[in-house]
Specification:
The chain is of the alpha/beta class. 30% of the residues lie in helices and 18% in strands. It contains ten helices and 15 strands. It has helices at 14-22, 44-54, 69-75, 80-89, 106-109, 123-132, 152-159, 200-207, 277-294, 310-321; strands at residues 8-9, 27-29, 36-40, 63-65, 94-99, 114-118, 136-137, 165-167, 179-182, 190-194, 211-212, 238-241, 254-259, 268-272, 299-302. Strands 1-8-2-3-7-4-6-5-9-10-11 form an eleven-stranded mixed β-sheet, with helices on both faces. The protein has a four-stranded parallel β-sheet with strand order 12-15-13-14, covered by helices on one side. Helix 1 packs across helix 6. The two termini are 32 Å apart. The mean pLDDT is 92. It binds adenosine monophosphate (AMP) and magnesium ion. Magnesium ion binds next to loops. The site of adenosine monophosphate has 20 residues, from strand 6 and strand 10.
């Protein structure tokens, strides 16, 4: 890791990291989903640095992270439905798209009058936001379109020369980006903008209302770039398969299986030791990044059972496979 290690703040140096944020800097921060690239959400110039470090288009709005309900109220108008979901799922991997307050600059929301808000559960991230004392805008800490980072080393590898610090909070527990829900005022037509660790069925149960889990969208003006057909992509060609028998004759290519094969070969990798979807999600991006590096001619990955967090894993895999 060489030079990048210098950027990794020891996990305890929250005040040092907050100091960078309060003086208009940007840095990598841990959350339970993936690492974020943080700036003071109220500081337009700082937020602009996030877009340039990532190469992210300005049409792609950011998620604003808060540490408590009082801070959430300062960022957005919390409807009764939002409060029900916040009570049940926050802190945690659920992002709510709500009407924004005036203090949030347009650069954060791509000029829209809605803002995406989340209260993360990662203890270091919560202490970090508290120490900053301001809402934190943070997209995933990777170059736009690439696989998200789930360790401080992933962040350092790609962004070390573009950011001011990295707060090392270890490996992300969930491993895929938050569930994003756009609530409707009427109770009809709530939209799931991105599948994530909180399954849509749990949101529907909490609201006692239906959610459109595959809303139609306009690719030119996406409501969430996570909805773009091609995103979260490795550089090397990725091919998906369902059944291990489909790849049994592959000797030269690297293959990621959902679960550990009974007699694994040296070109075999697996997301989980024993068919555990949460473990598979937590290992997904590390394995995609690793195989991207060692498989110049492409690699293969098995789809996982399409239930619970498996829906989010398969969603990311199909976007990683698809090329524009
Ligand atoms: P990332 O931080 O890379 O996981 O991306 C943040 C996601 O939140 C993107 O897919 C954004 O489009 C989505 N998002 C942020 N703000 C809004 C908003 N106001 N309306 C809809 N989606 C949003
Ligand atoms: Mg992202």
């Amino acid at each position: 890791m060489g030079v990048s290690k210098q950027f990794v703040q020891p996990s305890g140096d929250i005040l040092g990291a907050a100091g960078f944020i309060l003086s208009g800097g940007i840095g990598g921060v841990p959350t339970e989903t993936v690492y974020g690239l943080a700036a003071n959400a109220l500081d337009e110039r700082a937020v602009r640095k996030i877009f340039s470090a990532k190469g992210r288009p300005f049409i792609d709005p950011l998620i604003v992270h808060v540490c408590d309900m009082a801070m959430a109220e300062k960022v957005a108008f919390l409807t009764d439905r939002a409060k029900i979901l916040a009570k049940r799922f926050w802190p945690g991997p659920l992002t709510l798209v709500l009407k924004k307050r005036d203090c949030i600059p347009g650069i954060v929301t791509a000029g829209m009058d809605t803002v995406a808000v989340r209260m993360p559960s990662h203890s270091l991230m919560r202490k970090f936001i508290e120490a900053c004392g301001c809402p934190i805008a943070a997209p995933s800490a990777n170059p736009f379109g690439y696989v998200s980072p789930t360790t401080a080393e992933h962040v350092a590898e790609q962004l070390a020369d573009k950011i001011d610090f990295i707060l090392d909070g270890g490996k992300c527990a969930k491993g895929v980006e938050s569930t994003i829900l756009m609530l409707s005022e009427s109770g009809k037509g709530h939209k799931l903008l991105r599948a994530g660790p909180v399954p849509v069925e749990e949101l529907e149960a909490a609201l006692a209302e239906e959610i459109d889990a595959s809303p139609k969208h306009n690719e030119a003006q996406p409501q969430a770039p996570g909805m773009l057909k091609s995103h979260y992509s490795p550089h090397s060609r990725l091919t998906l398969f369902d059944c291990p028998s489909e790849v049994e004759n592959l000797r030269a290519e690297n293959v990621i299986f959902f679960t550990r094969p009974t007699s694994p070969e040296s070109n075999h990798f697996w997301l989980s030791e024993n068919s555990d979807l949460s473990e598979a999600a937590a290992n997904l991006y590390s394995l995609l990044r690793k195989l991207d590096k060692i498989s110049p001619n492409g690699f293969f990955c098995q789809r996982v059972p399409n239930t619970g967090i498996g829906v989010a894993i398969n969603d990311r895999l199909s976007r990683a496979e698809s090329k524009l």
